[in-house]
Each structure stands twice: as structure tokens, then as C-alpha cells.
Request: fold
Amino acid sequence: MITLTLRSIVRRLGLFAVFVSLCCNPSLFAADVTGHWRVLRHTDDGNTLETFLDLKQEGSKLTGTVLVSWGDLQISDGQVDDNKISFTADVFRYDGDIAGDRMNLTQHDPNIGAISVSAMRMPAHAVPSPARLPVPPLHVVPNNGLASTPPMGWNSWNFFHDKIDDSTVRQIADAMVTRGMRDVGYAYVNVDDTWQGSRDANGRIHPNKKFPDMKALVDYVHAKGLKIGIYSSPGPKTCGGYEGSYGHEEQDARTFAEWGIDYVKYDWCSAFRIYHDSEMRAVYQKMGDALRESGRPMVYSLCQYGKEDVWKWGKLVGGNLWRTTNDIEDNALSMFRNAEAEVDLAPWAEPGHWNDPDMLETGNGSMSADEYRAHMTFWSILAAPLIAGNDLRNMTQETRAILTNSEVIAIDQDALGKQGRRMRKNGNVEVWTRPLVEGAVALAIFNLGVTDTPVTVSWQDLGISNVKNVRDLWAQRDLPDAGIQYSGTVKGHGAQLVRLETRR
Ligand code: GLA
Reply:
């Protein structure tokens, strides 16, 4: 009797255990992740970066939005299987495990790699929205007198992304000197996003662990005969999710000036959550004024991806250069696309004020030498800023030769400051010219196709007379018999660049 009772108790306990494991173990039931989530990433530099998810689950299908600092990204390919979740949003891919009101995810970021992030469910939509500060009335910020030719230098983003720190910047400054970059005109060493830490009780921004002493770094770069740039955003957060200048514009400009900064790139990013695009001019004017009032001359680089016809007002907010496109990528399609976007923008470039088709990818490894030469040729004919974006410490001789060809650079830096124009387009072949000082002309021929193509361009067709000398700037030799035309083969995705000297 007693034995039977014990057996039945054990049986009942067993059934109870099965029941508990079924009802309380989320892994045995398909989760429902519908709702709002806050995603945290703890970086090695001591920051905690936030993104947000608004998710809707129907069966195993997942839709919704990933809210990053620079935009709201629609989810595609979203899938929930039991406790496994995966989805794509723009360039990001996420996958991981669901455990009730938490998720452990891996975020695959094309720039940064695989990052572990944790998500927790929020009762409501949770993107922080700081109070909107008023925008100032419009006025004209006086010229700062800088950048009489397109700025030349280096920037950390294209190659290093968030893996940039004090010691790497110092090594880059060293390489600018030892690899001959400084001597051909590259002057600015620019630290892009991810240098920021947090603000102290007085609101002053401090760098994060990667940059222990910004002033000391600035002094180091200056001692090399170079200048140094920094990066911020008019929004509360930068595109990388770091601290922006929102509400601290004057204070940050003063801090940058105290550190000895010479160049500020100001990136729209999360400002889109606060302002309308139509308010960009006023918002950029605010930092333009702040930089001016800091008393230190700093090149002002506007980065808002060419929105709102920035070329029409960039100079009025004190801008020395303004991005004309979205971010460049290290491939020929992206490089040509960014260059072509400037086909009608020549009238807006002049000494002190430049269209910026984004930084150079030369040497980053995914384009051929011909493509990198076309890249440098296009940027030079466009009078574009030449901001190298590769690892200068480890560049090949070929990359170095492309970046430091002084005759090509001389086209970019021509003192007349006129941006080149497209004169002809036949299929994939484009002919561009740029007027230079003393009646000289730069002629660039691009082959946007992949097949090597013979091209002839007569001076008469271009309306150029009295040509007395023609020099091939990549080969660095004068061309014989160049009295009436250029004739040669332009490689697939390649370019020719010649300088015509005229009799006056
Ligand atoms: C934007 C800019 C880039 C770079 C990154 C940094 O995408 O366009 O040039 O500054 O932000 O987060």
C-alpha cells in the first residue's frame, strides 16, 4: 500500500516536472518577439551604444524596423524558429537566440565585423528623443579663408572604421612623413567617428579610452608638420552611435579649438530624428558660427550626403567642402557613381569651397590599379578633396605611386580652382576637361566599361587651340605628335589624364 502510494507520488512528480519544463522553458515553444526592444552593445572603448527594434512576428515570419542612429531600416528575411531569430536590415545581418524578454544577438556589420549585442524587451517604443532646440535664423557665415585649394590629407574611416586609436593615428602621421605623402601636399590627419567618450557634469566632451590624451595627440601630429581633424554630428549621436554635438555646439567647437584641431567633419546622422531636412542649412550654420567664434581657424567639412542641394548653401554656412553623395565603397561602380553625381556641380566649386565626392579608397584592396588611377584622375579633374582612406603604414609601392603622383596632384590643386566638366559621352567613354592656370587644360578620358577602348579626341572638338605641349601625367612623359589630337587606348575601368599647355 505504502509502496504503491510512493510510486504514484513519484509518477505525479515526474508529470509535474514535464509540465513545468513545457510551460516555463521558452526554448520549447515558438517565441513571439512582437514589440519594442532596446539593443545594447558594450564597446572595448568603454561606450554603451544603443539601437532599437520594432518587431512584428506572424508565425515564423518577422517584419519590422531596426532603428539605428542614422536611420530606420526595414527588416527583410526576418525569421523566428523556436528560439532562434535572424533578420537583415540594410547592410546589417542579425542572428541569435531568444530567451523570454531577452535576446542574445550577433550583429554582422560590414565595416566592423561580427558584434555581440544583447536585446531587452521594452514596454513601449523607446528611441530617446531629446527636446527639440530651436534653429537659428539664417545669415551668411563669413569665409574662414581656408582651403584655397581642395583639402588634402587622410581620414581613418574607410579602412579602420571603429578600430582607430591614439597609437594608430600617430603611426599614420609618421607614415604621412616617411612615405612621402606630406611632401606632395597631404596635410590633414583626420580622426573620424568613434573617438568620443561621454560628457562630464559641465557638458564637456571627453574622448574614450582609445584616445587617452587628445591634446597630446594633436601636439604629436603638429610636431610632424601636419594638421589634425576630428568628427562630430549635429545630432545627439553620430552615425556610429557615439556622442554627437547636439545642444553642445559652441562648447564642442571651443573644446576642439583648445585641443588644437584644424579640421571638423560634421555628419548629419541622428540629426534626422530632430530636424527636417529643410532645416539643414540653419543646423550647419550653427556649427559654422561656433567654429568661427572659437577663434581657431578650422576647415569645416559638411557631411549630409548631398541632400538639399548643399552645394547651393554650403559656403554660406562657412563650409569649405560638402559631401555630394552617399558613402563611397571600395569598388568601381561606387567610385564612378560618386564621380558622375557631380556632372552638373562645377559652377559651385571655387577656392575655399569644394564639392566632395567622398574620401579616397585607393589602396584598400578591392579595385585594380587601373581603377584606382581612374579614381584619382576623376577626383583631380573634379577638384575634389584628396583625403586618402587606406592604411598608409602598409601600402604597396603601387598604391603609394598612385597617391603621390605629383603631376596628377597638381591638376587637383590647380590654383584657378575650377572644377572640370564633362564634354562628351559616347557609350562608356567620357571626355572631361578642366581649365588650369595660364591657359593650360587638363583632359581626362574615362572608360566606364570593362573593355579596353581606343579613343581619339581632337583639340578642335574641345574648342582648344594653340596647343604647344601635351603631357601624359600617369606616364609622366610628353607625347610626341600631339599637335591636333590625343589618340590612345583607355583600359576597361581605366582613365587617361593629360595636360595641354597652350601658346598664349
Ligand atoms: C557616415 C559618413 C562616413 C563616416 C561614417 C562614420 O556614414 O558618411 O564618411 O564618417 O558616417 O560613422
